[in-house]
From TrEMBL:
Identification of the protein by name: RCN1 protein
PROSITE patterns: EF_HAND_1 (PS00018), EF_HAND_2 (PS50222)
Bias type Basic and acidic residues, positions: 18-35
Keyword presence, Cytoplasm: no
Alphabetically ordered keywords of this record: Calcium, Endoplasmic reticulum, Metal-binding, Repeat, Signal
Domain EF-hand: 59-94
Length: 129
């Protein structure tokens, strides 16, 4: 449902997915208990998803169309499950690297590009000690 919800936009401006890649009746379905925000973050990344919250539906549709073009690696006008998986992996990897850089900055208290045990303890448990 994620791919379909993001790719089939109101007004018919979405790109179709490859027919053989569509979900089949009885196949495992996407669990939607966490809501669309979870899907947006997985698909776009946390910061990008947040920026979409501020857009009008028309602006959102236009930006999603550009993202779909970036996901379509072989530029055939269709998105496959593999292309979607690769995209989500890239987005998640970027999020992890950005998060590690932020945490590193927060933990490396003396800014020597090393995190000593004392720095780690202070950054993690400092208010308890």
């Amino acid at each position: 449902r994620l791919a379909l919800a993001l790719l089939v936009l109101p007004g018919g401006l979405g790109k179709p997915t490859a027919r053989q890649e569509r979900a089949r009746p009885g196949a495992a379905q996407h669990e939607d208990r966490q809501g669309f925000q979870y899907d947006h973050e997985a698909f776009l990344g946390k910061e990008e998803a947040r920026s979409f919250d501020q857009l009008s539906p028309e602006e959102s549709r236009e930006r999603l169309g550009k993202i779909v073009d970036r996901i379509d690696d072989n530029e055939d006008g269709y998105l496959t499950t593999e292309e979607l998986k690769n995209w989500i992996k890239r987005v998640q990897k970027r999020y992890i690297y950005e998060n590690v850089a932020k945490v590193w900055k927060d933990y490396d208290l003396n800014k020597d590009d090393k995190i000593a045990w004392e720095e780690y303890k202070q950054a993690t448990y400092g208010y308890y000690l």
